[in-house]
Give the backbone structure.
Amino acid sequence: MQDKKNLFFYASCIHRSDTMSGGDRIFIEIAKIWKEKDNIIMITSKEGEELCKKYGLNDLRYIVIGKHFNKKDSPAVLFLKRLFSGIKLSFNQKLPKNSLIYSTSNFISDAFPSFLLKILNKKIKWIGGYYLAPPNPFFGYDESKSKLRIPKLPDILFYIQDKASKFLINKFADIVYVTSLPDKNQFIKKSRPENKVLIIKGGIDIKTPDKVKNKKIKKFDAVFLGRFHREKGVLELVDIWEKVLKFKKGAKLAMIGNGPLEEEVKRKIKQKNLEKNIILFGFKDGIEKIKIFKDSKIVLHPAQYDSGGMAACEAMICKIPGVSYDLEALKTYYPKGMLKTEIGNQNQFARNILLLLKDKKLYNKLSKDAYELAKTWDWNKRAGQIYKQTFKN
């Protein structure tokens, strides 16, 4: 019997256990499958440990970095603390030979300690996760780059730290995980052939939706799932829904998620008197999330800057078609099952929503396409494929 490998997952940046980013979902779901074959050790924050255990990873070994996130600290201070804790750990932690370190995000507080662990320990391989680069601070979260803006200092610093992280991953990582083809091309070079840059699209749970009955009469005209962050277009979605209401009075939108813009979204909804039309559910997962999906007609993906995303597909397995902007990464992520919209065109986005709600023939076609696409995203298969690709290389 072949000896088990020691796989160290480095995830120091988690500061809330009541929410989950796409990158968090990827490493947690991968760990669930891989732990049956190898020894997985999580190097993470206290909140990260709580999050992992909440999702069934109770039988792993944990190396905890730092204390709980102090709400008085800014995100920048948090990441600096986690970075310095990681550097200290890297000099004190000896890893077994032939171990593998996987940095689960492209934050410098994950990438730099992983780089140190690689160079300070013999025969260590490094998988660098690089999932979503921050936008150019002069354009912000708008892939069309149609409007210049005056950047804020945190945006500039965020952009700079990512450049440092990307340099380390590109220069020293043995294998790179990315989420889309445009990102993959940035990491292919002579010393790292194409087969060592793997596109990790993520996956979904395709079994749980079968436990919830479909509803003939649906309460919500549309649903959104995602972090309440600028990159997800949550504030713009409130404006889009206001436009929908001009032509479909009483239309209701369900919004599932939480994050840094939560209070701002609430204020905007209140200012526009849309409390009866936009219902906020907070973070939901599992059966609770599926129930909301099955009570909704369309899934919305209003991000104007993204490298892919799994959230829409989680709804598509419930036979719900979607509306999104026509982002480059989504051409490969969602080649069918979605109506695509010119980036930044809120009027067209609203018209596409109304079109899907009105045109039954189009709705049924996209609903079928969405379901067929979603069935190929099974996490069990995806995690197994990633494992084979990784260790084959």
User: Anything to note?
Assistant: The chain is about 40% helix and 15% strand. The chain has a mean pLDDT of 92.
